[in-house]
Design a protein that fits this description.
A hairpin with a 4-residue loop joins strand 5 and strand 6. The strands form 3 sheets. Strands 1, 2, 3, 4, 5, 6, 13 and 14 form an 8-stranded mixed beta sheet that branches. Strands 9-8-10-7-11 form a 5-stranded mixed beta sheet. Strands 12-15 form a two-stranded parallel sheet. By secondary structure, the chain is an alpha/beta fold. It has 2 domains: 147 residues, D-Maltodextrin-Binding Protein, domain 2, CATH 3.40.190.10; 146 residues, Periplasmic binding protein-like II (D-Maltodextrin-Binding Protein, domain 2). The longest helix has 20 residues.
Length: 349
């Protein structure tokens, strides 16, 4: 082939490829469809959220033709990620404890949501939307008492945990864990005889009561799986202050454990969802948040044995009945660091 023909052939090939990539193929030629990567949404949450997110994420991906990447870790770790990547966020949505949401506002890493972008904000129960739309509660998981059913089937009052027959058989959360606050507040209620609305501010009384529980403690946990293993194996009879979602997950897998709600009630866990400020793909982020507050409410509530926050969705069957109390999370946020330091000194075993 002559040099001129080689050049003409190469030129024709370049022109063909150029036309194909621009989508302007000639009449009668099959057009080339270039593969496009699906849109990605990175959601940060707690590792325990996988219980229900594994069920709803595929539905969201199919409906919105996207890929959702879930990063499960602690709320404070998610906050650290947002602060460290503030100039160029890679998270789009975060699911964190309410006290950490307050810190996220101060760090300017989450942004206010409007009902025009997230219509289901207007469908939520009173008190589920916070700080004029900076975050909303997508569920109200509760603390409860998890029991080994071969050892315990009833617990009318938390006060029973101080009885001698429970020596070395009780497990409670550390105050480093959010659910640990439940036992501090309940202990304050038992010690003072005041309702939780007042007793939650009497933390000296709460610490005094919990210190008296130390002879009955097998351990104080920071890692939920380790605590549940002790319960399932029968080394512990009861975990007071355990999150319902974690107990329910193990129960559904056949573990000999169950949930009990004593008459003093349970603490509503702070389960918030928010949009990361300047996070990638705003519209997809809003869509995910909206579906978590609407379409997915019944399913995630049933899978986590938690109260839905959408007012039109009924509580799941099997949820222990009893009073669920909320606490002053702003007060907690202001004092928790000092409480944790005090806990480490006074509650060590």
């Amino acid at each position: 082939m002559s040099a001129s023909k080689i050049q003409a052939t190469a030129r024709s090939r370049r022109e063909f490829l150029k036309a194909a990539s621009a989508g302007v193929m000639g009449i009668g030629m099959p057009s080339l469809v270039l593969a496009q990567s699906p849109k990605e949404l990175v959601v940060g949450g707690a590792a325990g959220h996988k219980v229900f997110l594994d069920a709803v994420i595929p539905q969201f991906e199919k409906q919105y033709q996207c890929k959702v990447i879930f990063e499960g870790t602690r709320s404070l770790v998610n906050l650290e990620k947002m602060v460290n990547n503030k100039a160029k966020p890679y998270l789009s949505v975060v699911m964190m404890d309410d006290p950490v949401m307050i810190a996220a506002i101060k760090e300017d890493v989450i942004e206010k949501m409007a009902a025009s972008k997230v219509p289901n904000l207007t469908a939520l129960k009173p008190g589920a939307v916070h700080q004029d739309g900076y975050w909303a509660n997508y569920l109200q998981p509760t603390t409860s008492v998890a029991v080994n059913t071969s050892r315990l089937t009833a617990l009318p009052s938390y006060e029973a945990l101080w009885a001698p027959e429970f020596k070395g058989k009780v497990v409670i959360p550390s105050l480093q864990n959010t659910e640990g606050l439940a036992m501090l507040m309940i202990a304050a209620m038992l010690e003072t005889g005041k309702p939780i609305a007042e007793a939650q501010y009497q933390t000296d009384a709460g610490f005094r009561k919990l210190k008296a529980l130390k002879p009955n403690l097998l351990t104080i946990y920071t890692q939920i799986p380790q605590a549940l293993n002790l319960l399932e194996q029968g080394e512990a009879s009861v975990i007071a202050g355990m999150v319902s979602i974690n107990t329910y997950e193990r129960k559904m897998k056949g573990a000999p454990i169950d949930l009990i709600l004593p008459r003093e009630g349970a603490m509503a866990m702070p389960s918030g969802i928010a949009k990361v400020k300047n996070g990638p793909d705003s519209e997809l982020s809003y869509a995910f948040i909206n579906e978590m507050l609407g379409k997915f409410q019944a399913e995630i509530a049933a899978l986590s044995l938690a109260m839905p926050t959408n007012a039109s969705v009924a509580p799941p069957a099997g949820l222990p009945k009893g009073e669920v109390f909320a606490i002053d999370w702003a007060y907690v946020n202001d004092n928790r660091k000092g409480w944790v330091e005090r806990w480490d000194k006074e509650m060590s075993l």
